[in-house]
Amino acid sequence: MDRGLWITWYDLPDDGREAYLSWLHENYIPEILKRPGFLWGAHYAEVEKKIRSAVTTHTEDPAVPAGSRYMLLFGADNADVFGDPLPSAINAGLPEGSRKILATRIGERVNIMAEYGRVEGPEAKTYQAGMMLANCIQLGTYNTAWQNEEELLAYYTQGRLPHMRVMPGCVRTRKLVSVAGWAKHGVLYEFTSLEARNQNFVGHGDARMKAWSERMVPRLTHAPGSANLALRIWPPASS
Known about the structure:
It is a single chain. The chain is of the alpha+beta class and 239 residues long. It is built from six helices and ten strands. The chain has helices spanning 17-32, 87-92, 96-102, 149-165, 194-200, 207-216, and strands at residues 4-11, 38-46, 57-58, 70-76, 106-120, 136-143, 170-180, 185-191, 221-222, 228-234. The chain has an eight-stranded antiparallel beta barrel. The longest helix is centred in the middle third of the chain and has 17 residues, at 149-165. The protein is globular and about 55 Å long. The two termini are 25 Å apart.
């Protein structure tokens, strides 16, 4: 199983963007995927969310890099795969030309996360891409006071994840905890398309979940741009 994730958020300047994307998709990702334990790589570009929560709080810590336009994710057997060598060491060991290209990233932020819970949605039974993340994802990453964490676990296990199991358009939902990086918690939703997400990922399921969400959401402090809604640009999205 692909229980380990290396996630990088960043922005890019307009100048040189297409050259960077070509290099990333044709050279960098294929080379990274040759490493033992790496199972897949996927690159996403953020889209504007149709629905934004007025009560979502984002960190104002200036030490937290604020990039969010692009998300590069690698999946591995487990998070320990990213411990030797570390992602930072992998990038530092690249040829000088590749390091210069990587240096064009703006506001780069990294989390190494471990999956501790998963449910499959209705679309999983016809999904043909195996472990590869779906065409459309929504990734929330955040922190909360430790006093909230037991209820947060219950909220997802008893409410949100069962709701996603029956939501049309949902392929999978993964709950994540951090091994390294600013955000301690994460939730990764996978959808067949942006249209399916926008049509179905609304509301809270029932009155109990609505009240629970209204109580929990203000207790979370999100990473910049979270929750990130994005479409896969590599490998090209499947039809």
